[in-house]
Design goal:
292 residues; mainly alpha; 14 helices; globular
Length: 292
């Protein structure tokens, strides 16, 4: 198989009908790292809404069980989409996620914003730092996957296309995003979590560098809204150039073989997991009940 063979195959598909297959090829073969990082960065920018960051802070999940909370978030998304949202496994993952959300007061507007952020985040990252830009069929497939996820979550007024998702994202940020101490509290918990992945001697350095690196990858005014120090122009250019060069290098390498699809390796579950393992350890998490 050559580097662009999967893209040629994807372009023979109809995203309106075949979006689960296109999503699978994007996330498990073509752009597994880029998709995951784009999704993670979207999770970071979700906290520019105080209604989101305050809820996350009130549960204590990130500060007390940060690794499990992070792994579960990534694995719910992976399990829901790996074989299609309407597969038995996909439906089970979404049901479990909805059951958790039902314990909290989350508005439909917040759900729509989070859906837009987490759908567009990987698209924007891949188009900026991936080894190639997404084809039209691929972008449409990711949008349709996001729409179907929103439908299964019971979200109302989901946009029909990329422009609509972006309008939700930009309008919500313009009208409601602002700095709140909870924004930085959750960001610091995430940075501490990432730093702990490094060998112990390097963890202090990672804790110092991570906020500056993330701030360099975010567009203004997002760093200010999270409470991060905006890096200088040279530092920002260096981080972005290095990240882009990684994509250019990857373009020269052979594609991922069919027999080796991407599979997460979460620290919380070194011996594997099921959908039933995901979610809070206590059956009834503390916090206000959900109201939409």
């Amino acid at each position: 198989m050559k580097r662009y063979d999967r893209l040629r195959y994807i372009q023979t598909l109809n995203p309106e009908d075949d979006y689960p297959e296109i999503q699978r090829l994007i996330t498990r073969y073509e752009f597994p790292w880029d998709y995951r990082v784009g999704f993670e960065l979207a999770l970071m920018t979700d906290i520019v809404l105080p209604s989101v960051s305050r809820l996350l802070a009130s549960t204590g999940r990130f500060t007390q069980h940060g690794q499990k909370r992070f792994d579960d978030t990534m694995l719910f998304e992976y399990e829901a989409k790996k074989s299609g949202l309407d597969s038995a496994n996909g439906r089970a993952a979404v049901r479990a996620m909805n059951h958790i959300h039902r314990h909290y007061r989350i508005s439909n507007d917040d759900f729509r914003y989070l859906l837009a952020s987490q759908t567009l985040g990987p698209i924007d990252w891949i188009d900026t730092y991936g080894w190639r830009r997404l084809a039209e069929e691929e972008e449409r497939a990711l949008i349709l996957t996001g729409r179907r996820m929103g439908e299964l979550m019971g979200i109302k007024d989901i946009p029909p296309d990329t422009a609509g998702f972006r309008e939700v994202l930009e309008t919500t940020r313009r009208e409601r995003a602002t700095f709140d101490p909870a924004n930085r509290e959750i960001a610091d918990a995430v940075f501490a979590l990432f730093a702990d992945w490094a060998p112990p001697p390097l963890r202090p350095l990672c804790r110092a560098l991570l906020p500056r690196t993330v701030a360099a990858l975010l567009e203004p005014p997002l760093p200010d809204l999270i409470g991060l120090t905006v890096p200088g122009r040279r530092h920002r250019k260096l981080i972005r150039t290095v990240t882009r060069e990684r994509g250019k290098l990857l373009r020269l390498l052979p594609p991922r073989p069919d027999e080796h699809p991407y599979v997460p390796r979460p620290r919380t579950y070194p011996h594997g997991w099921t959908v039933a393992d995901l979610g809070p350890l206590d059956p009834a998490p503390a916090g206000p009940s959900r109201c939409r």
